Amino acid sequence: MFPKTLCSLWALSSCHLIIGAQGHKTDNDLWLPPASTEPSIKNPYVTSGPTYNVSSHQAIRIQSTTGVNSHWVGQWITTTENLHFVLISFSDVIPGGPGNSTDGGSANGCLVYSLDSGSFSSSFVSGTPTAVGQDRLKIQFGEQYELHSLTDDNISEISVIANFNGSNFSLNTTFQPRGSLLFNGGSGSFYWGSVFNHGWASPASYTTGTFTINGTTHIVDPKRSTTWYDRQWGEENPMQGWHWLPIQLENGIRISTWVLPTEQGALKAFATALYPNGEQEVVSVNPDIKPSDVWVSPNTNRTWYGSFEVSFLDEYNSVIMAISPDVTSRKFGEASFGSAFAFCDSFTLYNGTWKGESVRGWGIVEQWPAA
Ligand SMILES: *[C@@H]1O[C@H](CO)[C@@H](O)[C@H](O)[C@H]1NC(C)=O
Ligand SMILES: *[C@@H]1O[C@H](CO)[C@@H](O)[C@H](O)[C@H]1NC(C)=O
Ligand SMILES: *[C@@H]1O[C@H](CO)[C@@H](O)[C@H](O)[C@H]1NC(C)=O
Ligand SMILES: *[C@@H]1O[C@H](CO)[C@@H](O)[C@H](O)[C@H]1NC(C)=O
Ligand SMILES: *[C@@H]1O[C@H](CO)[C@@H](O)[C@H](O)[C@H]1NC(C)=O
Ligand SMILES: *[C@@H]1O[C@H](CO)[C@@H](O)[C@H](O)[C@H]1NC(C)=O
Ligand SMILES: *[C@@H]1O[C@H](CO)[C@@H](O)[C@H](O)[C@H]1NC(C)=O
Ligand SMILES: *[C@@H]1O[C@H](CO)[C@@H](O)[C@H](O)[C@H]1NC(C)=O
Ligand SMILES: *[C@@H]1O[C@H](CO)[C@@H](O)[C@H](O)[C@H]1NC(C)=O
């Protein structure tokens, strides 16, 4: 254990580093809550846009053991004590048990990162859901993880209750999607490795709740916290892996960027931007995202990268850098169960130019290696 004073000095210098990367921000407004107060289900693009019905697809079951049926909840939290955390909880419900009769291929897990201390914890647990809702969205893995809708539309208010005792982490948060949803590719259907799949997000959800890590309970400050909820399902998972960059800019623009090698050998790289006025725009991306700042996981001996440069093939030559501060020394973001499988969702700061304007923001970079 570090003496307390040394700890807080280190925390101060880490805050300084983060402020340095962002320019002249104070550490109290690292990230911003949703600007809109409109429930997403009332948004015109959600109700009358060229998209599927998000409510009725929330608890859909897929047939393929090699598919994806994912609820990913990324939360950028400022606590009432002015501490900063990135909390990710996720589940995937697919068939795959004996005779395909159960959900034996399913999994759930969490990633917890403290910006102030640099500490990181994660769990990735295979298992079978103990309950899947019939009337409302509800996915439960015993006492460990539960995602459920508090409203009949399956979307206006969703709660995550988790207790990952292996990580000494428990969570009880609720998020409310605000403003338009982001539909990847504009319609929420896109080519994902080998087949079309479906993916939409609430990239700006109002967030409340509490969580406990390593014995300390923290209270979410909703005015300085936000959730990106990502929902995706389809009958196949890409065998060649992917990079996914959910970019949240301070000017309110949200950009979901995919770089996907396809099974046919081609590379698909595109970004879907959601503007605060609800407009959605799909932009091609240079698939060479220039990874740098290499680091090797002490847990799995896998190689990950801490920085990327995303060049958008738009008329402005927009470029956004992804930089995970101190990741080469702190080594945060990996979730695995042994060396056979791992992925990496590292907290990331973004900066660059978008449509001729200088921008900065926050998010993660997801690195998902080939199977
Ligand atoms: C979505 O489907 C539900 C029934 O499952 C229906 O009540 C609702 O009106 C539909 N929403 C839209 C926007 O069509
Ligand atoms: C919510 O999800 C359930 C499945 O759990 C489904 O039966 C119901 O129709 C959905 N509600 C709406 C409004 O679509
Ligand atoms: C499980 O389902 C997959 C995909 O539908 C199929 O290829 C496989 O043969 C099934 N396995 C069993 C044991 O039924
Ligand atoms: C929790 O405690 C464990 C064991 O001391 C440590 O390795 C980990 O970094 C801590 N996690 C967080 C998020 O503080
Ligand atoms: C976590 O709890 C489960 C039962 O709920 C138990 O089987 C497991 O051993 C516990 N793990 C740890 C690390 O305490
Ligand atoms: C989660 O928080 C809600 C709202 O504060 C509370 O009603 C509920 O009892 C909590 N659930 C658990 C399992 O702690
Ligand atoms: C959780 O963390 C606290 C504080 O570090 C510690 O006292 C407790 O023993 C830990 N519990 C487990 C199950 O690791
Ligand atoms: C780690 O991986 C490298 C190759 O990437 C290999 O040379 C090295 O032996 C591995 N180390 C361990 C401890 O497995
Ligand atoms: C992003 O910020 C870094 C400094 O942290 C700077 O070196 C880089 O040029 C900036 N990138 C862009 C595209 O503006």
UniProtKB/TrEMBL annotation:
Q: Record the organism.
A: Hypocrea virens (strain Gv29-8 / FGSC 10586)
Query: What keywords are annotated for this sequence in UniProt?
Result: Signal
Keyword check for Cell division: no
Q: Which SUPFAM superfamilies match?
A: AttH-like
Identify the InterPro entries for this entry.
AttH-like_dom_sf, Fungal_Dehydratase/Hydratase
Q: Which segment of the chain is annotated as a signal peptide?
A: 1-23
Name under which the protein is recorded: AttH domain-containing protein
Keyword Plastid listed? The answer is no
